[in-house]
Amino acid sequence: MKTEYDFSKMKARKNPFAQRLKKQVTIRLGQDIIDYFQSLAQENDIPYQTLINLYLRECAQTQKHLTWTEKAGLKG
Question: CB burial class (10 A; 0-12, 13-18, 19+) of residue 40?
């Protein structure tokens, strides 16, 4: 293995799989939900957005269904 490599003549290429990895979306969450995931993420030393993504992925993989009641309906 060389001790030094010359990358100055190397051509840059975009990752062809980058768009398949994650898609940015806008979502409105309650402050209490954000606070919960931020504190949980801090305990586990990971970004809270990653934690939310992991939780939603688990819900999707296990096909978790929402238990809906009128009292738990949309507020604000």
Answer: middle
For residue 46, give the DSSP letter.
Answer: S
At residue 42, the pLDDT reads 96
Two tokens at 59?
């819900």
**Using CA atoms, how far apart are residues 70 and 33, in angstroms rounded to an integer?**
19
Instruction: Tell me the two tokens of residue 58.
Output: 């688990």
Q: Which residues of the chain have pLDDT under 70?
A: 71-76
CB atoms within 10 A of CB 54: 13
Helix (H, G, I), strand (E, B) or coil at 58: helix
pTM listed for this prediction? 0.63
